[in-house]
Amino acid sequence: MGSMLTRDYDTFAEEAKKICPNRVFTDYLRRYAYGIDASCYSYLPKVVVKPNNEAEVVELVLLANRCGTPVTFRAAGSSLSGQASSEDVLIVANDGFKYAHVLENGNAIRLSCGVIGSDANEKLAPYGKKIGPDPATITTALVGGIVNNNSSGMCCGTAQNSYKTIRSIRVVLADGTILDTSDRASVERFLTEKKHLVDQLVSLRKDIMADSELVDLINRKFKIKNTTGYSLNSLVDFEDIVDIINHLFVGSEGTLGFVSEVTYNCVDDAKYKGCGLLFFGKLTDASKAVVALAGMSRDVVVAAEMMDYLSLKSVQQLDEVPDFVRGIPEGTSCILFQSESNDEATLDKNLAYIQETLKDIPTVIPSLYSKDAAEYDKWWVIRKGLLPIAAGLRKPGTTVITEDVCFKIEDFTSGIEMITELFHKYGFVDSGIIFGHALSGNVHFIITPNFNDKTEMDNFTGLVKEMAERVSAVEGSVKAEHGTGRMVAPFVEMEWGKKAYAVNRKIKDIFDPSGLLNPDVMITDDPDIYKKNLKAMSDIDPLFNMCMECGFCEKNCPSRNLTLTPRQRISLLREEQRLLKDGNTEMAEELRKGYEYYGVDTCAACSMCSQLCPLGIDTAQIALSMRKINAKGASLAHAIYNNFNATINAARVGVTLGGVAGKIATKTLLAKISEDAHDFTGLTPYMPTTMPKANTYKLRNKRRPDFHKNVVYFSTCANRAFRQNQGYDDTRSLQQVFESLCEKAGYNVIYPPHIENLCCGLSFENYEDIDRQALADLTAALTKASEGGIYPIVIDHSACFNHAFKHIKGLQILDISEFLYSILPDLEVTKCNESVLVHKQCKVKVLGKQKYIELLARACTDKVFNIKSFACDGFAGQKGFFTPELNKCATKDLAAEVKEYGCTLGVSSSSTCEIGLGENGGIPFVSIAYLLDRCSTAKRK
């Protein structure tokens, strides 16, 4: 299919640049980076395009028709079976597709394909609702992928997946036609203009319904989870053409059209939940418990996850894991189940019934039951992170393969035994991991073969093929919820039989007769496609080698829509090593040079990626280490540090001159001039409109004989040089505000000796010797000021606090927000009417201290909102001046967020971040200290 396509990629790329300016990539670095996904496949697209809206997608599809270039639509790239891989044109529909609108008081929600599943649930939370699908990747997976894979997950089973909860879709067909099944006019137009397509579908349904044997097969196959092939049940379950199309596109994996929007009927998010964690000596005992749970009503138990011994062993290093799990006997397996209800008494009754039902199945450790979300959420972290965690423990050079099959519940125990037998037969018994959504009869397993070893390659192909044969033989699903993809496309006919497979091919032919959309996915003429283009995992630094490129990290990355994401940075390092190994030094050098900007210069080094990675991989370390290697001007850096006070004074003069210029030219004009100069030279700094003014306040200790509490205040170099950002009506320096708060709370303020010469070393982190010297000098000064650590030490910039906190031991070092929260009891706080947006600086989030600034804001006003549009603003110290595009990209949705919440003030604990936040958010961003000082007085005695 698709063999007649002309494949004129050059013309496509040139014309696509007119449709999507600056968003068409043909260079090797970005084609490779965007080509990687969470699957075990490695395909290099010829062209990558990032459309911003549906209209652009329509134009691209029409262009693809003219140029005969097959296209693949990509959402988050978290699919596991190769359905998002492409060697043709890859269309990445993510950032421009974020529309989300709650309907009917939470009973439905309309979502663009680029909305993250968990973000949709966040919008529905106030209504006590959620979307039905709940894949383990819901914090990463986009709606486009969830619908196109018919992803289910932990709790939704077959009752609340996309197929069961879809209300309408908006789709771009292979010829560029748009159909919105929620719009009567669109449907009527479609029925008229696409009568031939409609007639073919109606005829196909008629043929199926006339064949009782085929109808019976389809009904049986979809009683369990099944994503092998198309949703044939849509042609049996529905008669109305709109209902058929709605449901036929669920699980179609981008092979029938581009789903730009979907409307879901929402489900209840039960008020009360309870979970159980049960441990069994044998996997067969665990499977017996699963069968018992599966026999219960969904009103009693909504989920049961099974994990074998190697699964449990792989997660023993997680902090969330109960201590006793670290010493479980070999062979132990477990079940994690969940019950829920809107009535707590009913939940208690359910939990008691479950305990009673399972009491005769022997366990090796006392079972755990809990209704405490803080406790059972940790258990679910174990299960949800299992795939990437297990993948991270694989041997160097091996590739992660995750398979996903489903059995009828009466075959579940024998199915587990069959998979275990295959592990023994094909040599994966020591590394194969079995887990899955057991309540649905759905089993996942992981193997990690080395594809450089012919024996292991043969073992992999042998296992996959025999598994498909044996699962099909008992009417199981070769793919239950991960989608058909390339992994299972050759086995669709094996599972369904010739007659039903012919229906699958007919569906593809009706919607995509030219084979333009996602070739070799779902339908293929290549019986070996499942074992081609498998990822070869080149060895890199062990810190990053464990990455399986799942993409969990990407949501937090400030550069994700500018250059690269963390997993792309890691994958490019692997590719460079592969090229070098193959002797392709020219291409490896091209990647290395490009990496300087895409991988190093535009990495904020914020470590926010590590907060979402189940393995805690901190990709920031790549950029930090390379910056040290490439650092230039060491002699100048030494001169700056050795004359630090003069450097600070020069910075004050610089902004003072900016102020003089500002009297002649507007701040906006100066910003535009500096931006144009930066774009032209790449060297001159960008001057934001919110650039602060010079700080001339003299720092002197503030002591009163009646005060008996002391605090050491290390005001950082940025805050010593500059006053509060422009646009705020309080023109005092931060030091004055802090001193005011301390006076109200009864604290003496002590500045470290010779503070004018002190730096935490963060500004010199590329020069290790200067960094060490700065930390040593600071430690000595803080030790002296705090009288050996007796007094708390406050640092007024969170990035500097993080650096000092990590490297200076034996002293009580506090972020400014943490200290101010501690003195709240000493203040009389009167709430104001300010609507406040809280910025939680990335470096306090890394240390788990982000709660303090929000608590301070809530003490000052009832109208408090947290920034949700980014995890890091990308200002990253001097990068806001020398790589301003990073900050602008990260905060592009901030102004809309400010408008949505009606905020009038932003608070932060990073004066540099506040510059970019203020400029891009359109409201003043100031230190939280200003707000607290405005709302507080000394406590009456």
TrEMBL record:
Domain 4Fe-4S ferredoxin-type: 536-567
Xref: Gene3D superfamilies: 3.30.465.10, 3.30.70.2740, Alpha-helical ferredoxin, Uridine Diphospho-n-acetylenolpyruvylglucosamine Reductase, domain 2, Vanillyl-alcohol Oxidase, Chain A, domain 4
Residues of the FAD-binding PCMH-type domain: 41-269
The keyword Metal-binding is annotated on this UniProt entry: yes
Top-level class of the enzyme under EC nomenclature: oxidoreductase
Keywords, in A-Z order: FAD, Flavoprotein, Iron, Iron-sulfur, Metal-binding, Oxidoreductase, Transit peptide
UniProt xrefs under PANTHER family: D-LACTATE DEHYDROGENASE (PTHR11748), D-LACTATE DEHYDROGENASE, MITOCHONDRIAL-RELATED (PTHR11748:SF111)
Protein name as it appears in the record: D-lactate dehydrogenase (cytochrome)
Lineage, highest ranks first: Bacteria, Bacillati, Bacillota, Negativicutes, Veillonellales
